[in-house]
Every structure is written in structure tokens, then in C-alpha cells.
TrEMBL record:
One Gene Ontology molecular-function label: 5-oxoprolinase (ATP-hydrolyzing) activity
Pfam families assigned to the protein according to its UniProt record, in alphabetical order: LamB_YcsF
Family annotation (NCBIfam families): PRK05406.1-3, PRK05406.1-5
Protein name: 5-oxoprolinase subunit PxpA
Keywords: Hydrolase
Enzymatic class: hydrolase
InterPro entries (alphabetical): Glyco_hydro/deAcase_b/a-brl, LamB/YcsF/PxpA-like
Family annotation (Gene3D superfamilies): Glycoside hydrolase/deacetylase
Organism: Undibacterium amnicola
Length: 244
């Protein structure tokens, strides 16, 4: 089972999280992060043998990349390529490989069903490193388009987020968008693994087949949630690790 977290975002617990997860998505300057934070996160990931990915965003540091944006496609392509290339270059200096790309925040959510944004992300991977896997929302059009373009994909589900009945994430503007109780997060992951389903915010049963499970690294309960999930998965006989 692959557990992943978004890191290099100024959180106080990156080192502890990297001792738990098998994949890390490192902020590379769009919503937060700089060369120093990228290098620190890469070194920590290398120490723990954790696979690393670029975590690019709309250029929106004021809103942490979580506000919808609609930049011109070519401008966005250039901005995202710079972020991904910056991380790849630093990783090369540290003699560590980048394995995947996971868009951040509003870009992640908008690209799930916007074919124009999906095309930009596909082009970014083709330009920066065609061997990168794309992490995206399980069941999204983004992953279908990427796979059709020859991009390796990993369908992602969230341990610490609630879902709408259409399979999209509950917007953060709602107080019930996030899960911060260990038992609920654990049960959501186990249900996804065993039955490929979960219950939406309005009580509908939705089908989700996921290859990787995320807890947001900047969450107040991230370390505890991840620890509980990892311990329960191991207790149930699952191994924690990531395959390319």
C-alpha cells in the first residue's frame, strides 16, 4: 500500500511524516516552497527511502494555491515546467530521483475534469520527464486522458477528506470537509482497500479504486492520522511501500 503526503510546505512535522509514508509530494514554489525547503525535503526523503514527486501549483502564494485560477494555457505550462524542473534539478544535485508529479490544491481539483488543464499537465510531464507518474483524483477524466497519452498514472484517494456523491472532494470552505479523527480516517482507507467504496457526505455509496492514499502534511493531525493508518494496515497484513 502506498501512503503519500504533501510536504515542504512549511509544516513542523515533515521529518516525522517521512518516517511513515512511502511517497512524498514536495512543494516547488507555486503555492509555497523554495530551493532550500525543496533540498531539505529531498534529503529527508532520501534518508528514509521515500519516493519523491513534484507538487506544482498555480502561482498563488497568497492563497496557498487553493483559490481557483484561469491563467492562459501557455503561461501555466511555462510556470509549471519551471517548478517541476527546479525540483528535478535539486534532486539530481542530491543524487535522488523524482518519480511522480501531483498537482496541488485548486489545480488538482480543476484539472480533474477540465480537459484543457489536463492537457497542460500531460505536456508538462512529457516535457520535463516522460517517465514521471501522474497522481490524480481516482476516477477523474484527468487520469483517463493521461493514460490515453501514454502517461503512467496513480489513482489517489484521501484518508483525511470527505467526498461529494460525484466522487469530487468536499470543498474546504465547508466545516466538514476534513477528517481529523483517527478511527474515521483508518476505516475510510480500509473500506477503500477492501471494497473500493466509501460513503459520500450526503450518504451515497460511491466506487473509488485507488493506488495511493494521501494525508495532507500541513494538517494539524497529520502525524497521528498517518501513524494510525500505517499501524492498522500493517496489523491487517498489508505492506507499506510504493511501486513505480
Amino acid at each position: 500500500m502506498d501512503l503519500n503526503a504533501d510536504l515542504g510546505e512549511g509544516g513542523a512535522h515533515d521529518a516525522a511524516i517521512l518516517a511513515i509514508v512511502s511517497s512524498a509530494n514536495i512543494a516547488c514554489g507555486g503555492h509555497t516552497g523554495d530551493a532550500e525547503t525543496m533540498r531539505i525535503a529531498i534529503r529527508l526523503a532520501k534518508d528514509h527511502g521515500v519516493r519523491i514527486g513534484a507538487h506544482p501549483s498555480f502561482l498563488d502564494r497568497d492563497n496557498f494555491g487553493r483559490s481557483p485560477q484561469h491563467p492562459p494555457a501557455e503561461l501555466l505550462f511555462t510556470q509549471l515546467c519551471k517548478q517541476v524542473d527546479d525540483l528535478i534539478n535539486i534532486a539530481e544535485q542530491e543524487n535522488y530521483g523524482v518519480t511522480h508529479l501531483k498537482p496541488h490544491g485548486a489545480l488538482y481539483n480543476q484539472a480533474a475534469d477540465d480537459p484543457l488543464l489536463a492537457e497542460v499537465l500531460i505536456r508538462v510531464i512529457q516535457h520535463c520527464d516522460p517517465n514521471l507518474s501522474l497522481f490524480g483524483l481516482a476516477g477523474s477524466n484527468l487520469l483517463q486522458l493521461a493514460q490515453a497519452s501514454g502517461i503512467k498514472i496513480k489513482a489517489e484517494a484521501f484518508a483525511d477528506r470527505r467526498y461529494n456523491s460525484d466522487g469530487s472532494l468536499r470543498a474546504r470552505r465547508f466545516a466538514d470537509a476534513c477528517i481529523d479523527q483517527d478511527e474515521e480516517a483508518v476505516q475510510q482507507v480500509l473500506r477503500l482497500i477492501r471494497h473500493q467504496e466509501l460513503c459520500s457526505i450526503d450518504g451515497h455509496l460511491i466506487h473509488i479504486k485507488a493506488d495511493t492514499f494521501c494525508v495532507h502534511g500541513d494538517g494539524a493531525h497529520a502525524v497521528q492520522l498517518l501513524s494510525s493508518i500505517r499501524q492498522q494496515l500493517i496489523a491487517c497484513g498489508y505492506q507499506i511501500g510504493s511501486q513505480s
